[in-house]
Amino acid sequence: MVRPDSRSDSQISVSKTRVATSPFLWYGDEVKSLSLVLLMRSGWYVACVVVGTFFSWMALALVLSLIDPQQASWLGMMYFYLAVFLALAGTLFLFGYFLQATAAGRGAARQRAVGLATRQGVLFSLLLVCVLWLQANRLLSWLNVGLLVGLLTLIEFAFISRKPAAPVEPR
Questions:
Q1: Which end of the chain has a smaller Cβ tally under 10 Å, C or N?
Q2: CA dihedral 101, 106, 112, 113 (to 10 degrees)
Q3: Which ranges constitute the DSSP H helices of the chain?
Q4: Residue 50: HSE in the Cβ half-sphere, 13 Å Cα cutoff
């Protein structure tokens, strides 16, 4: 009987060892680079987000201490909104991930929790930053917030309703 995989058992165990020790998924001798979120192990991704979120909060503290909002140009305000967005996205991701990961358990469900928490953290922080910008420009009203929430809800529904990608089979 001929096996469909032409590698010997020792090569298979070596590649399994490489998969277990690497933060990326290895197939043969090449790394599949479709998406960093999908290919990076969830532990490594969460560790990177924790470090990035810490630096984002430090950048926000630096922006708040050094930039006067009354005299700041558009560049200073852009730094402020960018720091707020990154800090909120990371914090909301971590909060959402730990809620979903405890409910999901292990394996593929935890990997889906990473993608879901990333998307929801980014969308919700985008909503909060847009509300801050609207308030700063005296444009905040219930109608504007309702339209913004409706737009972000449609984006979330588009992500939910799309077909999941077929799993990548090892060669």
A1: N
A2: 0
A3: 9-21, 36-39, 42-66, 74-104, 108-136, 142-161
A4: 8
> pTM for the full model?
0.70
Alpha-carbon distance values, 130 to 52, 58, 72, 123 (Å): 22, 21, 19, 11
Contacts of 18 (CB under 8 A, 6+ apart): 26
Are 117 and 97 a contacting pair, CB within 8 Å? yes
46-104 pLDDT, tens digit per residue, is 899 999 999 999 999 999 999 998 898 999 999 999 999 999 999 999 999 999 888 87
Give the 3-state secondary structure of residue 26.
strand
Q: Tell me the two tokens of residue 46.
A: 């969460």
CA atoms within 13 A on the CB side of 134: 16
